[in-house]
Automatic annotation (TrEMBL):
<keyword id="KW-0804">Transcription</keyword>
<dbReference type="InterPro" id="IPR010339">
    <property type="entry name" value="TIP49_P-loop"/>
</dbReference>
<dbReference type="GO" id="GO:0042127">
    <property type="term" value="P:regulation of cell population proliferation"/>
</dbReference>
<dbReference type="Pfam" id="PF17856">
    <property type="entry name" value="TIP49_C"/>
</dbReference>
<dbReference type="InterPro" id="IPR027238">
    <property type="entry name" value="RuvB-like"/>
</dbReference>
<dbReference type="GO" id="GO:0010557">
    <property type="term" value="P:positive regulation of macromolecule biosynthetic process"/>
</dbReference>
<keyword id="KW-0156">Chromatin regulator</keyword>
<dbReference type="GO" id="GO:0140861">
    <property type="term" value="P:DNA repair-dependent chromatin remodeling"/>
</dbReference>
<keyword id="KW-0067">ATP-binding</keyword>
<dbReference type="InterPro" id="IPR027417">
    <property type="entry name" value="P-loop_NTPase"/>
</dbReference>
<dbReference type="GO" id="GO:0006281">
    <property type="term" value="P:DNA repair"/>
</dbReference>
<dbReference type="GO" id="GO:0005524">
    <property type="term" value="F:ATP binding"/>
</dbReference>
<keyword id="KW-0805">Transcription regulation</keyword>
<keyword id="KW-0547">Nucleotide-binding</keyword>
<dbReference type="InterPro" id="IPR041048">
    <property type="entry name" value="RuvB-like_C"/>
</dbReference>
<dbReference type="GO" id="GO:0003712">
    <property type="term" value="F:transcription coregulator activity"/>
</dbReference>
<keyword id="KW-0227">DNA damage</keyword>
Length: 471
């Protein structure tokens, strides 16, 4: 049999480079069907009330009917606010956009603050566009290609396609010939051609021609010769964000700006036109809005102008769900001399639902540290984990998480397979946590330049004064 001589193409292995980020262990909110938080699931531990609340909000978002809601995650540092937002983004369906930004980003962009916020908002709203495309679907009877005698110049050719009822000959241009070659289309294949884009898809080989060639691999799919007309209509749905539509339609930028990210400011007229167009599409049933989430971390870094802008934006019918997170208590609202809870103006707070996160107990800290060591591929002994948990309780969870990696390196250096108590002790003495660093600075202040904690104009080395202010 001739088929035995056919070599299958070699399968190339694709290696993915996975980096371990601060929240890479989190895969979802870890809720059960009744939205009750499991003590430890999908990488999330404890913080059950906040997780459950986040789950309820997520349901609301998935329904897609509610616009203009805002939610605030408030709690002390390291209590999992960012983690919960990440979990929500992972649990959201793929075609609802999730935009993740830190409030301070808006100050570093070469555009106004409100433009930056508008872009983020429009990045968070998906538009599902339904499109009917015309396709040609049939079995290939024959492909004929004429190469010009000179060897150069346009190639031309003819393609004969048939269904069970009809047969048509199509003229081929150079591009079509190239894509037919690329797809290795031959007589007996059943193909579709997208009329608008010219994209060719091979559906399989026709049953009728199954015996013509024995050089077909095991993967070959056999399909029936299509029935009816060669030309057909097919519905496809794609989701794009409003921001993408903006960029593509703003004449100065063009779609290439999507790749560079360098979109600059977009004119209001462009946005107005697009809003009108999208509204039209919605009325005609061609498009649907898929509202997503805009997550603004460190929200206390926004200033009063941003807050009033967001207040207004939330009233818009096309607003996404806005989630903010902050670890500040009562503090000054940026850009004013007024203080308010979380540094967020009261009128905006009034529109938000506030979810609070609380510090972890020892058992939960231990569990999180355990999950993190697994994530970082660090084996850790029970007593070392206990010490690490103590450290997390006394200093901070983040500091303890950092020690996992460093202790792992130390253990590997001494060729141990497991991190022991001594490794943790070693890195604990090598790397200071925030408290000990502060303590050290207080004691050795005079040895540093520009001792600013003591106030700008304090003479260098006046230790007693500095101590008084900073402690
Ligand atoms: N409930 C949890 N389950 C699993 N991991 C958690 C949990 N809470 C926090 N973590 C992990 O602990 C670390 C610190 O948490 P996170 O960054 O979410 O804190 P935060 O509340 O955003 O703090 P900050 O106010 O400083 O921004 C992260 O690596 C996070 O993934
Ligand atoms: Mg955070």
């Amino acid at each position: 049999m001739a088929a035995s001589g056919v070599a299958l193409p070699e399968v190339k292995e694709v290696a993915f480079l996975e980096r371990i980020g601060a929240h890479s262990h989190i895969r979802g909110l870890g809720l059960d069907d009744s939205l009750e938080a499991r003590q430890s699931s999908q990488g999330m531990v404890g913080q059950v009330a906040a997780r459950r609340a986040a789950g309820v909000v997520l349901e609301m978002i998935k329904d897609g009917k509610i616009a203009g809601r805002a939610m605030l995650l408030a709690g002390s540092p390291g209590t999992g606010k960012t983690a919960i937002a990440m979990a929500m983004s992972r649990a959201l369906s793929t075609d609802s956009p999730f935009t993740n930004m830190s409030a301070s980003e808006i100050y570093s962009l070469e555009m106004s603050k409100t433009e930056a916020l508008t872009q983020s908002i429009r990045k968070s709203i998906g538009v599902r566009i339904k499109e009917e495309t015309e396709i040609i679907e049939g079995e290939v009877v024959e492909i004929m290609v004429d190469t010009p005698a000179s060897g150069t110049g346009q190639k031309v050719g003819k393609l004969t396609l048939k269904t069970t009822e009809m047969e048509t000959v199509y003229d081929l241009g150079g591009k079509m010939i190239d894509s037919l070659m690329k797809e290795k289309v031959q007589a007996g294949d059943v193909i579709t051609i997208d009329k608008a884009t010219g994209k060719i898809t091979k559906l399989g080989r026709s049953f009728a021609r199954a015996r013509d060639y024995d050089a077909t691999g095991a993967q070959t799919r056999f399909v029936q010769c299509p029935e009816g007309e060669l030309q057909k209509r097919k519905e496809v749905v794609h989701t794009v964000t409003l921001h993408e539509i903006d960029v593509i339609n703003s004449r100065t930028q063009g779609f290439l700006a999507l790749f560079s990210g360098d979109t600059g400011e977009i004119k209001t007229e462009v946005r107005d036109q697009i809003n009108t167009k999208v509204a039209e599409w919605r009325e005609e049933g061609k498009a649907e809005i898929a509202p997503g989430v805009l997550f603004i971390d460190e929200a206390h870094m926004l200033d009063i102008e941003c807050f009033s802008f967001l207040n207004r934006a939330l009233e818009n019918e096309m607003s996404p769900i806005i989630i903010m997170a902050t670890n500040r208590g009562i503090t000054r609202i940026r850009g004013t001399n007024y203080k308010s809870p979380h540094g967020i103006p009261i009128d905006l707070l009034d529109r938000m639902i506030i979810i609070k996160t609380v510090p972890y107990d020892e058992k939960e800290l231990k569990q999180i540290l355990k999950i993190r060591s697994e994530e970082e591929d660090v084996e850790i002994s029970d007593d070392a984990l206990a010490v690490l948990t103590r450290i997390a309780g006394d200093t901070s969870l983040r500091y303890a998480i950092q020690l996992i990696t460093t202790a792992g390196v130390v253990a590997r250096r001494r060729k141990a397979t497991e991190v022991g108590m001594d490794d943790v002790k070693k890195v604990y003495s090598l790397f200071l946590d925030e408290n000990r660093s502060m303590q050290y600075l207080k004691e050795h202040q005079s040895e540093y330049m520009f001792s600013e904690i003591g106030g700008g104009d304090a003479p260098l080395g006046s230790k007693s004064e500095q101590m008084e202010i900073s402690s």
